[in-house]
TrEMBL record:
<dbReference type="GO" id="GO:0003924">
    <property type="term" value="F:GTPase activity"/>
</dbReference>
<dbReference type="InterPro" id="IPR050209">
    <property type="entry name" value="Rab_GTPases_membrane_traffic"/>
</dbReference>
<protein>
    <submittedName>
        <fullName>RAB4a, member RAS oncogene family</fullName>
    </submittedName>
</protein>
<dbReference type="Pfam" id="PF00071">
    <property type="entry name" value="Ras"/>
</dbReference>
<dbReference type="InterPro" id="IPR027417">
    <property type="entry name" value="P-loop_NTPase"/>
</dbReference>
<dbReference type="GO" id="GO:0005525">
    <property type="term" value="F:GTP binding"/>
</dbReference>
<dbReference type="InterPro" id="IPR001806">
    <property type="entry name" value="Small_GTPase"/>
</dbReference>
<keyword id="KW-0342">GTP-binding</keyword>
<keyword id="KW-0547">Nucleotide-binding</keyword>
């Protein structure tokens, strides 16, 4: 239940509503408009997907990850805080959160 997820998870939870089986349009039980309105009213991300064709399957994960990263970069979400729901898989990934150091004038940042 959506209210349970919000009550039990981090206050900065990112939730995406995936309408599945997009390829079976004739068997649709919820219209795109109904699902889209529900998502908007409940502040959810929304995509329709099809596992059969692969449509929007990867995009659902990408959008979710992008929203989480935006929350980290804006300071709304602190991955170092206990209970944030975020864990780094590799210490090198923590550099994503660290601001880039200014480069001295006349030098270029390595692109490797």
């Amino acid at each position: 239940c959506l209210s349970d997820a919000r009550m039990l998870a981090s206050q900065n939870i990112v939730i995406i509503l995936c309408g599945n089986k997009k390829d079976l349009d004739a068997d649709r039980e919820v219209t795109f408009l109904e699902a889209s309105r529900f998502a908007q009213e409940n502040e959810l991300m929304f995509l329709e997907t099809s596992a059969l064709t692969g449509e929007n399957v990867e995009e659902a994960f990408v959008q979710c990850a992008r929203k989480i990263l935006n929350k980290i970069e804006s300071g709304e979400l602190d991955p170092e805080r206990m209970g944030s729901g975020i864990q780094y898989g590799d210490a090198a990934l923590r550099q994503l959160r660290s601001p880039r150091r200014a480069q001295p004038q006349g030098t270029q940042e390595c692109g490797c």
